[in-house]
């Protein structure tokens, strides 16, 4: 089978197309024929060695496909369409995974949609329902609102009736965030987001800040929270934040600091099934709209990461591993095929 592996840590150039034997599923495992796989910044952290993985390593953590074969004591049946949000080795024609890590895909959700939905969709789900359960009285700030998770998070917050502010870098991304439902757009390249939020809330601040940017935003995020507010740090695209003195949380109004991570929210079969099924059902009924910008063949994975890391994209990137999935004429997905324009190093 064809795979994409890296044998040393580094940039996109370390990725190579390798031939490996098709693995056999063991007890409780399933062999899946991978149709589509998602591209994520998580993969960049693994490839560069920021998150250490044993090498050589097959890259890719999320995808969708069809169960080809199962091992002993495995309840899932061959032929079942499945998706997964957290299984290393997804950039390969075949993948062996514990059966409990596979989420059945509803009939009216295309394989491309399933591959694009789970990792970022479940992240948005737990942020808005577990980390800080948002409601009709919630006022929230979402950084990088035009990004993959940010766009989904805005939709879910609006679904719950919250008032949502978001930061973006350029007008093109402001339009994307507005289409997702954001009430107020702050162009952080032109306006101080701290002052903007204070003006919009008449000095009260917001109940929660969802911050995936990290180093360059966390101090401002803390300063715009109202007393007893919550800062949810779930990424670090600008770099990791330094240690925070707990007394700063007290001085800022007895605020709460959270650093949630996806694996802890899907660490057991019940949690994964509940969250994953909820997200796929939202995609199926149209209440959660995806934006798939481009698909790349397996051999062009390195280019996908050059585009992602170069901030040249605004939608979800997929790797088309194999053909033979469900029809692609899916009205639930906005599939933009135009060539992306470079945006330099801007985030959000």
Per the CATH scheme, the topology name of the largest domain is Quinone Oxidoreductase, Chain A, domain 1
**Total beta-strand segments:** 17
Helix and strand pattern: EEEHEEEEEHEHEHEHEHEHEHHEHEE
Mean pLDDT: 91
Strand content: 25-35%
CATH superfamily of the largest domain, called what?
A: Medium-chain alcohol dehydrogenases, catalytic domain
- Rg on CA atoms, Å: 20 Å
User: Distance N terminus to C terminus?
Assistant: 37 Å
**Top CATH class of the largest domain:** Alpha Beta
Q: Please state the second-level CATH architecture of the largest domain.
A: Alpha-Beta Complex
- The share of residues in helices is 25-40%
Shape summary: globular
Secondary-structure content class: alpha/beta
Q: Which consecutive residue ranges, at least 5 long each, have pLDDT under 50?
A: 324-348
Number of domains: 2
The description of the largest β-sheet is: 8 strands, mixed
Number of helices: 10
Describe this structure in words.
With 348 residues, the protein is of the alpha/beta class. It folds into 2 domains: 2-118 and 270-335, Quinone Oxidoreductase, Chain A, domain 1 (Alpha-Beta Complex), CATH 3.90.180; 121-263, NAD(P)-binding Rossmann-like Domain (Rossmann fold, 3-Layer(aba) Sandwich). The protein has helices at 41-48, 111-131, 148-159, 171-180, 193-200, 218-223, 246-251, 262-265, 269-285, 301-309; strands spanning 2-6, 15-19, 29-38, 57-58, 63-70, 81-84, 94-98, 103-104, 139-143, 163-168, 184-187, 206-211, 225-233, 256-258, 290-297, 316-320, 333-335. Strands 3, 5, 6, 7, 8, 15, 16 and 17 form an 8-stranded mixed sheet that branches. The longest helix is centred in the middle third of the chain and has 21 residues, at 111-131. The model is unreliable at 324-348 (pLDDT under 50).
């Amino acid at each position: 089978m064809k795979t994409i592996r890296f044998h040393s840590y580094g940039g996109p150039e370390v990725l190579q197309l390798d031939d490996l034997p098709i693995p056999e599923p063991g007890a409780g495992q399933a062999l899946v024929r991978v149709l589509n796989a998602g591209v994520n910044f998580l993969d960049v952290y693994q490839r560069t060695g920021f998150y250490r993985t044993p090498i050589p390593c097959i890259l890719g953590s999320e995808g969708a496909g069809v169960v080809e074969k199962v091992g002993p004591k495995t309840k899932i049946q061959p032929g079942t369409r499945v998706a997964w949000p957290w299984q290393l080795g997804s950039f390969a024609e075949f993948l062996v995974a514990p059966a409990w890590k596979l989420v059945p895909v509803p009939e009216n959700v295309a394989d491309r949609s399933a591959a694009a939905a789970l990792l970022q969709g479940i992240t948005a789900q737990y942020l808005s329902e577990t980390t800080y359960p948002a409601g009709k009285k919630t006022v929230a700030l979402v950084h990088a609102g035009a990004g993959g998770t940010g766009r989904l998070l805005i939709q879910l917050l609006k679904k719950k009736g919250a008032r949502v502010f978001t930061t973006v870098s350029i007008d093109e991304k402001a339009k994307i965030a507005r289409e997702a439902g954001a009430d107020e757009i702050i162009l952080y390249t032109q306006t101080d987001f701290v002052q903007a939020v204070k003006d919009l809330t008449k000095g009260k601040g917001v109940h929660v800040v969802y911050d995936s940017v990290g180093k360059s935003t966390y101090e401002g995020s803390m300063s715009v929270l109202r007393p007893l507010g919550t800062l949810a740090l779930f990424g670090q695209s600008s770099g990791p934040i330094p240690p925070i003195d707990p007394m700063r949380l007290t001085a800022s109004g007895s605020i709460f600091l959270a650093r949630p991570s996806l694996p802890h929210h899907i660490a057991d079969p019940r949690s994964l099934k509940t969250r994953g099924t909820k997200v796929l059902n939202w995609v199926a009924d149209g209440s959660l709209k995806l934006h798939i910008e481009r698909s790349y063949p397996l051999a062009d994975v390195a280019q996908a990461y050059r585009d992602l890391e170069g901030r040249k994209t605004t939608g979800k990137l997929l790797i088309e591993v194999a053909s033979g999935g469900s029809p692609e004429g899916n009205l639930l997905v906005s599939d933009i095929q135009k060539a992306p324009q470079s945006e330099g190093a801007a985030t959000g």
